[in-house]
Design a protein that fits this description.
The chain is mainly α and 210 residues long. It contains eight helices and two strands, in the order αααααααββα.
């Protein structure tokens, strides 16, 4: 079980252990199955790396913001206006609301575009949003979960008065950090397992045991 780190990308095992592994490899019939010592094709390695990087970029917390009540406060405030009520159908009403808010330069414009709603969705959350707003709540701390508006399950920074932590999604969350750790752990574990075997330059002689 001796380890060597002089050339870790070639082998992590000393020559004695490599010799023993070669003898075992060639000396066992493995049920008649011939296993060569080929390296993983480089296109597969690059494909795995590309898959991992793409997955992390797509799920980056900045792109995965969850819809909150503050995003739709402007929509709700326009629902009962004469201009909206005068329109004939829900599709036209929703289009008017979205275009109106967009023309006013909403700070939530990008997230509103990623999380579109229809009039039925707005009707389901309208009363809850108005109730929270009248109570002086920070609407950004409430997530939209189906037809419910619920306090977000986040633990952010302490409020200036020190009373509690804000319930806002951070730009970097713990789940993302955990994912990075486990993917790195997996890649390192696979590398160690492979480099503990004889280097791919050596090929077993299957005639010895078959």
């Amino acid at each position: 079980m001796a380890w060597t780190f002089s050339n870790p990308l070639y082998s992590l095992t000393d020559e004695d252990m490599n010799s023993g592994a070669r003898e075992t490899w060639e000396g066992e019939s493995l049920g008649g199955i011939m296993e060569d010592n080929n390296r993983l094709p480089q296109p597969i390695v690059w494909l795995c790396a590309l898959t991992i990087m793409t997955a992390f970029l797509v799920t980056f917390p900045l792109w995965g913001q969850r819809p909150n009540a503050a995003m739709y406060e402007e929509y709700v405030s326009l629902m009962d206006t004469p201009e909206v009520q005068a329109l004939s159908n829900d599709g036209a009403k929703m289009k008017y609301i979205v275009d109106k808010v967009r023309s006013q330069g909403s700070v939530w414009a990008s997230l509103q575009e990623r999380h579109p709603l229809d009039m039925d969705d707005l009707r389901m959350i309208k009363g809850q949003v108005i109730e929270l707003k009248n109570a002086g709540a920070n609407l950004a701390e409430y997530n939209i979960l189906g037809n419910k508006v619920q306090l977000a399950n986040f633990e952010g920074n302490m409020l200036p008065d020190g009373s509690r932590r804000e319930r806002l999604q951070p730009w970097w969350d713990k789940g993302y950090t955990i994912d990075i750790f486990y993917v790195a752990y997996f890649c390192i574990a696979v590398l160690i397992a492979v480099k503990r075997l004889p280097n791919h330059e050596w090929q077993p002689d299957h005639a010895k045991a078959h």
